[in-house]
Amino acid sequence: MAEVMLEVSGLQAAYGRSQVLFGVDLTVRPGELVTVMGRNGVGKTTLLNSIMGLLPPTAGTVTFDGTDVTRARTFQRVRSGMGYVPQGHETFPQLTVWENLQVTLEATGRTDRTAVDDALEVFPRLTGLLKRRAGFLSGGQQQQLAIARALVTRPRLLILDEPTEGVQPSIIREIEEAIEGLHRDRGLAVLLVEQYFDLALRLADAFVILDGGAVRHSGTAADLHTDEVKNLLAV
Amino acid sequence: MEALLSQLPIGLSIAAVLMLVALGLTFTFGQMGVINMAHGEFMMAGAYTAYVLQDWTGREAVLAALPVAFAVAGAMGLVLERAAVRRFYGRPLDTLLLTWGVSLVLQQLARDIFGAPNVQVRAPGWLDGGVRMFGSQLPYTRLFIIVLAAVSALAIWAYQNRTRQGRRMRSVMQNRQLAACSGIDTGRVDQLTFFIGSGLAGVAGVALTLIGPIGPNLGTYYIVDAFLVVVAGGLGRLRGAVIAALALGLLDSYAEFWTDASLAKVIGFAAIVVFLQARPQGLFVLRSRALT
């Protein structure tokens, strides 16, 4: 069995006094695409925010590349190779597309522009929009920028929270293809939260189903077709 | 017509003072949303810096004090941010009380160190005299303040829009979580932003020594005006603060010309109240899809 890249164990998290995660275990191996599924409000986004340190966990550990990052600040995790695309096509709205990518490049401390060029290669549509303010792009374009921004940090693990939510159908396809290409062709490890069962079915090497803030079911791609999984995901 | 124009230099110089005291707030209040009541005391610290430097530099104190006051007030701001304010981000009312308390402590500290009576900083010799403009005398000290305000505003604009640090600051202020997700150490950016904002208060304080005596209460005279300018200009908008300062300064001078000093103050406040009724967001509002 290959080494483990991301290991989450016994992770608990709470917003104030209301606990959302009750001990979540999860592993991502290098080059693997793991999808986190579950209905609305089961704690998927909370899980990703805890993994990234945006919401400090109350218990449990997060290990990345053999290093315990449970107490690391978010920017340190990013610099160590965890790329994160939060839910809802987040950008710096008053900065131009170019500035969005540039500020990220500068934050990583690198001076060569290849990371930006590579990201634009994944989303060529952005190349023509570099001088536009991010806040004026369409939802789909903003989401492409959001993923491109994460790619500029040169992640070894890309964490995506519902990347196709609220995106026009024509661009959904492009985003899916981009994720697929990054995973298949470049061997990028991906942790994906996605509502669309089809996408998960097509891409995932392994899956985790959350319910009530805990892992209800997990397995490899082959296990995805069982009735139990379909029942758990039925809304 | 002559009389009307004669008020222009006076209005401009009032505007320049307003602009200087408000520019620092566009960082701490405008960008970071921190209501720092001690901002006025950072001005006071800048003014006393010039007073102290006088012993070494004589009449050139004002020029020498500009960078030193920036560093002194900036360092005070940095300590305040690290020690207290950062624990209260997102809690504006608590921050207001906290920094108000700090401002009282700083005033008392100044009283203990420098004494309660006002002190004087002598302006440099090359600022003696003045220039006649539109039939009224504009002292060189006022002209110096106008130039200083313009240079400061330009420098801030360049910092925000033309430097890496400025770009980083804007990204943190627009989307803090995403900035962290882009590898930006948001805490460091907060420190630097607070340092610059507070340092600018120190620069304003030095300028204030040119227009009157300074005392422990110096900050309290200007803090309200400074916040008014920033709010009327639209939070975090440099251009807004500059225009609001100009408008208020000119309004003040003309209102005083036609009525008297205290009524001018009332007219100024009334104008802002009416203006904010019509445009609660201030002169310039950030517009984008993300915010609609």
UniProtKB/TrEMBL annotation, chain B:
Organism of derivation: Actinomadura montaniterrae
Molecular function terms from GO: transmembrane transporter activity
Intracellular or extracellular location(s): Cell membrane
InterPro entries: ABC_transp_permease, ABC_UrtB_bac, BCAA_transport_permease
Organism superkingdom: Bacteria
Entry-linked Pfam families: BPD_transp_2 (PF02653)
Main location: membrane
Record's protein name: Urea ABC transporter permease subunit UrtB
CDD domains membership: TM_PBP1_LivH_like (cd06582)
